[in-house]
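Purpose: get a first structural picture of the assembly so the mutagenesis plan has something to point at.
Setup: two entries, given in the order below. No constraints added.
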Amino acid sequence: MLTAVVVPEGLEAVQAALVEESRLLAGGTDLMPRLNDRATPPTRLVSLRRAGLDGIAVGADAVRIGATTTLARIEDDDRLTILRGCVRSIAARPVRGLATVAGNLFVRQPHGDLAVALLALDAEVEIHGPGGPRAQRLDQVLAAGLAPQELVTGVRFTPPQTFRYHKAARRRFNSASIVTVAAALTVVDGVVRDARIALGGLGPRPLRCETAEGVLVGRPLDEPTVRDAARAAETVIEPFDDAYASAWYRRRVFPVHLRRALLGR
Amino acid sequence: MTRPAGSPQEQESVVPSQIVTLTVNGSPRELIARPSTTLLLALREGLGLTGTKRGCSQGACGSCTVLLEGEPVVACLVPVLTVDGASVTTVEGLADADGGLSPLQEAFLDNFAQQCGFCTPGMLMSSCALLRRAPAPDRDEVEEALSGNVCRCTGYEPIVGAVLDAAERSRVVGRSGAGVATSDVPVGGH
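Result (structure tokens, whole complex):
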């Protein structure tokens, strides 16, 4: 049950409102379904709708997306085509009109496909807390979470030479992930110079797969290489059972989707 | 019947209410809301606009889709206190002031795009938003735009056909945005 909903204007007011025990509300697409059930303990919400944390800035070699920027806004921004395939694979438009970038970092698998993409983009997370601002790499934020009263204010990344995103789901649109693969690649003369691979649906949170990356670097981007990379990832992934697919199925089809992500076939 | 002290219902009754102002279908409206009042509940029970339907209350079925500042959203997931002052378009806002149906609504009628009709308001609002973003969508875009709206009569085929038909009609008469409401809500995807 909700006991209060406050809508502070600006980041400082948000910080002040968080002194009382409360939960942050961004788009509400993950939190509100649970709160709509009356069997929740009394909850005070601090909404970020007027926190001034939305916005997209695209510089020469860096992109910054404000924490409360909606997925719909990313979808519509012609400067962010790199993320368009990813956000369009998440839920449907009336949910993307609410769901935010920062919220997507903290939803449970098999959701959180944007977090998978941002992990492959080696995104840095801007965080604000009682002690002021700090920045931390997304992989560390996903592993450790935030301290009480801290909140994400934005994410930033440098677009790579090549970015690939592929999501396997039960339906073409609006379905949670069975396997999601995002990859940032630098390929010179057909040889992989640099690779970052992130996986969704294959662990308790989005996984960065450095063992597979190590296999790719220095080798041509072809089927044998990708097969070896998938084999190297086998010990890293921790697939799970849910309503969409079994852990066995996820593990079984992962190499196929890694190949489709990296080779497009 | 008296409820036991401290029950959720009793706790809720002592939570302070607040006045919320919305611009709904172009007109300023006021209502009294509690923290737990969603935009959906505010429209239906606060303002009597029962065209917007309550389906799952989980954001999964799309039957409560309305335009919030021009953007389609599931109204069941929005605490109305967070959108005080916002502009909202509901299915009641699609028709002309004199009750004449919008081209999109006409296309739904002519294509038999409703059976029980429960999903229709949400379908119309998602379609309306699509036609504003993309006045000439292809079939794939229509299916994607409606992928968050569930029809339990499973009558998707005529619904998709109706949206394509509405876009075609708008093209023929040289208008953009077949379902555009008469109110002056912001147009576009932001």
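Confidence is low (pLDDT under 50) at residues 1-6, 181-190 of chain B.
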